[in-house]
Design a protein that fits this description.
- By secondary structure, the protein is an alpha+beta fold.
- It has eight helices and eight strands, in the order H-H-E-E-E-E-E-E-H-H-H-E-E-H-H-H.
- The chain has two domains: about 220 residues, no CATH class; about 30 residues.
- The longest helix has 12 residues.
């Protein structure tokens, strides 16, 4: 696994200076492995898809850096595992924003900033003209972020009386269910993983089969939101196509 990391980094470098087809193949290849370093991480856990086992905790205030979901750099993560229950967070927004009920990413009002967060750091985090801002956009566009709970990979608390099996958004992305990794920490921590589903996505990608829908051209977020609406399925095909054409005008 360790020997695979330099190859994945080279693949990402190639993707930065190639056409969409090779970019997609390089990104798919980089999705296969995970090698991430943490701070404020404690305990040990093993993850097989949506099933976690062990005792571990990675603070949302801790740092994460490495290769994950095809991206090399700083990540926003949090995790805890208690026997087979827990949750796992991998988001494009800093965890401090989630803890403070999601401050708008474009906010410049100092009064809205989370306690202890510098305004400059927050604004740089979401500036699309910076390298980090572009990386955040790619993670979101490729559908790689999630907030999931064990053991079923649901995004709805288990204690709520709500059927997640009837809601598309009730589960984490498909690649979450094929991830295998191990986390170990004693303040400083490490996560090492492998995703056979992403390996299959990489192999099928050469034949233009996009298993996880993470290839360019990326779907317009507005289109994705509309398609996830219950009203979308109530429209006939002609009305759906007309609506999509209207969106493309703006």
């Amino acid at each position: 696994m360790i020997r695979l990391i330099p190859i994945l980094i080279i693949a990402l470098t190639i993707s930065a200076c190639s056409g969409p087809y090779l970019k997609n193949r390089a990104r798919d290849f980089a999705d296969i492995a995970t090698f991430e370093l943490h701070t404020k991480a404690y305990g040990t856990s093993i993850r097989l898809g949506p099933i976690h086992a062990g005792l571990s905790y990675k603070s949302p205030h801790g740092k994460s850096w490495g290769l994950r979901s095809g991206h090399v750099g700083n990540h926003n993560t949090a995790e805890f595992t208690a026997v087979i229950f827990g949750s796992d967070y991998f988001t494009s927004r800093p965890m401090t924003l989630l803890l403070n009920k999601g401050i708008p990413s474009d906010s410049k009002d100092q009064s809205l900033l989370p306690s202890g967060t510098k305004e400059l750091e927050l604004l740089e985090e979401f500036n699309p003209e910076t390298e980090d801002g572009a990386n955040i956009a790619i993670l979101r566009q490729r559908g790689k972020e999630y907030r999931a709970r064990s053991p079923f990979g649901t995004t709805v608390p288990l204690q709520k009386k709500k059927s997640v099996f009837k809601k598309k958004e009730g589960f984490a992305p498909g690649y979450y269910f094929t991830q295998i990794d191990v986390s170990i920490g004693l303040y400083y921590g490490i996560r090492v993983g492998f995703n056979p589903g992403e390996l299959l996505d990489f192999l099928l990608g050469w034949f233009k089969v996009d298993l996880y829908h993470d290839d360019e051209p990326f779907e317009d977020p507005r289109v994705r939101m509309i398609k996830n609406s219950p009203l979308w399925k109530s429209l006939d095909k002609k009305s759906q196509n007309k609506l999509l054409k209207e969106i493309q005008k703006y």
